[in-house]
Design a protein that fits this description.
The chain has 190 residues and is mostly beta strands. The protein has helices at residues 2-17, 31-40; strands at residues 42-47, 51-56, 62-67, 78-79, 82-85, 89-92, 100-108, 112-115, 122-136, 143-145, 149-156, 159-170, 174-182. The longest helix has 16 residues, at 2-17.
Length: 190
Amino acid sequence: MKKRIVSMILALSMMLSILPVSAFADAGAGLSSAVAEEANSITYSSEDEHEAVGTNSETKNQVVKIKIGTNGLPKAASGTGWSFDETTGLTITGTGSEDTEYILDGTVSCNVTVKNANSYTVYLLDGTVTSTLLIEADNMYGVCVLGGSYADVQLNLGTIDGGTYDKVTENGGNVRGGFFRDISGLSADT
């Protein structure tokens, strides 16, 4: 009787050992989980209908969550370090007095331009942009995209270090990470 139990346990363990390891992997792990963990360290001190402003306890940077309406546009014309115009789209410049992190809360259907002011860094932590994302930093590390999903990106200085991109056109800058569907616009050095 003991031999039968031991042989059944052995047979079961052998069957489990041939299963693919990915079957036990957390499907939510990866970039979006990293952003979710990052969001857990953010405490919002003020919130209204168009944005929430707080602090990231890990980086000590100010964090601004820009709220996007169901029409794919920001719910207001301006906020903390950002503005919206129907002609140019959403422009994020940062506060100009400290490093600032931004989260796009909803799918953005207009063009988005991210630039930095006064040599402070602007971070784009997460968001979805179905139009063009234009990254225009005054130096290699002036704008850093860490996550999100973007249809068409033009990188003119700045850094891409995470996220998912349908197409990237690199006109300078630094690409250190991310998932790219079309890499024809990346330089040979990347």
